[in-house]
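Following up on my earlier thread - several people asked me to post the actual chain instead of describing it. Fair enough. Here it is, all 169 residues.
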Amino acid sequence: MPESQLPRRDLLLAPLLTALVPLAARASPLNPAETIVTVPADIPWKLRPDYPKDSVTSAPLFGSRTGNGIYYELIKWYPGYMSAPHTYVTDRLCVVVSGTWWVNSGADFDPAHCVPVPAGSFVHRVAHTPHYDGVVASGLEPAVIAICGLAPVDMRYLEPGRPGWRHVE
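Reply from S.P.:
Thanks for posting it. Predicted structure:
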């Protein structure tokens, strides 16, 4: 097709695309001090202290819930375990990465009234409001939740004399 018959958009894009080719050839390599990548195999999952084996694990990714400022962590709940009702002094922003997470609000622990939250969902936990969560016993797989917020969270259980977890049948 002669140049005079090329669509106008092609005539406009040709110089731009030609200019980008040398830029791509000169692109900088990734600087691991500026873009820090942690692949799944290198994420440091740990059992929470005082929790039974195969109940819940966590992986701090950035900051700390007990420090100051922003933190980001992964939590993995296994079927049959949930947290005891608790509160935080700051909001928590949660995304279900995989599995189904079961959540409820209130001080009365009743897993039968939990709401299933599938992968890809967003949950905003409002500061100072009691809630609990985990995976019901009939859950088919663990749920992985990415959680972000401002620390310190000052987590408080509504029944401080009992464990922070519940085994559900």
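The first strand starts at residue 46 and ends at 47. That should answer part of your original question.
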